[in-house]
Specification:
This protein has helices at residues 53-59, 86-99, 112-123, 150-158, 161-168, 171-176, 178-185, 191-203, 231-239, 255-258, 261-274, and strands at residues 18-21, 27-33, 38-42, 64-68, 105-110, 128-134, 217-222, 244-248. The protein is an alpha/beta fold. An eight-stranded mixed sheet has the order 1-2-4-3-5-6-7-8, with helices on both faces. Helix 2 crosses helix 3 and helix 4 crosses helix 5 (161-168).
Length: 275
């Protein structure tokens, strides 16, 4: 189906950085590229919008891709210290959608971005046309099977890129994509902001509210994700009505980047569930 006749396909977007105003007045940097139905990308913990790299580019061939820097990250202001929770960060995401004049959007969240996306779908169901959750969970680990292994958690806390890379990406992908790898792991952020992002992600708990998600939901999860083990995705599928889970063989925590085939799966899911 051609996008040219649709009311949301008004123009080609340039990727210019704009600023939205968060509920507390903080400035949130955002950009857009592509034609088609709006798709909001929500990055993970302490990761700037540039971290979406080639995935954003691929998606922009089919959608109007809107990205933003979380508060305290990249070009966004840090805002009030008390607003660093996944539920309040979802209000930031809603503010970006408002600034982008996107009343209804597909929402794609990775890791902590998926946690934020859950609250956006719960609290603002009228804004979310479909929900894509990659490498994420509903919150605090209910049992040992959902917990990251000790070495993976230590690597995450350390911030050592050399230790983090194999937890996220395939070794060959890293070698072939040094630019996107560097952008993903080197988002501008202060220790103050990183600590608050870490706390927000760790304290997320939406298990009791996931049944309220109304949007068609696609769950993407790597079978080798050591930071958010696969049982988290199985529980998400149980809690979110009519959700669909796709296991990605051999993928780690960064499957949204090093498995570009997921873009085709997302397109197929959206076409099937929202047409």
């Amino acid at each position: 189906m051609s996008h040219t006749a649709a009311p949301w396909a008004r123009r080609r977007y340039s990727g210019t950085v704009n600023f939205a105003e968060a509920p507390d007045g903080a400035e949130l940097a955002w950009t857009e590229a592509g034609d088609g139905e709006p798709m909001l990308l929500i990055a993970g913990q302490a990761t700037a919008m540039d971290g979406w790299g080639p995935t954003a580019e691929l998606l922009s061939h089919y959608y109007r891709v809107i990205r933003f820097d979380h508060r305290g990250i990249g070009r966004s202001g840090k805002g009030d210290a008390g607003r660093y929770s996944t539920r309040l960060l979802a209000e930031d995401a809603a503010a970006v959608l408002k600034a982008a004049d996107a009343d209804l959007a597909h929402v794609y969240g990775h890791s902590m971005g998926g946690r934020i996306g859950q609250w956006l779908a719960i609290d603002c169901p009228h804004k979310v046309r479909s929900l894509i959750l990659a490498a994420t969970s509903g919150g605090k680990w209910p049992d040992a099977a959902t917990q990251p292994d000790g070495a993976a958690l230590e690597a995450l806390v350390s911030g050592d890129v050399a230790r983090l890379e194999p937890l996220f990406f395939d070794a060959e992908w890293i070698l072939s994509n040094p630019g996107p790898t560097h952008a993903f792991f080197n988002s501008p952020a202060s220790a103050w902001a990183k600590a608050r992002h870490f706390k927000a992600s760790r304290e997320h708990d939406a298990w009791s509210r996931l049944s309220d998600v109304q949007a068609p939901t696609l769950i993407l999860h790597g079978t080798d994700d050591r930071l958010t083990p696969l049982p988290n995705a199985l529980l998400l599928r149980e809690h979110i009505p009519r959700s669909v889970l796709v296991r990605v063989p051999g993928a780690g925590h960064g499957l949204h980047l090093d498995h570009p085939e997921t873009v085709d799966w997302i397109r197929q899911f959206i076409a099937r569930k929202t047409s």
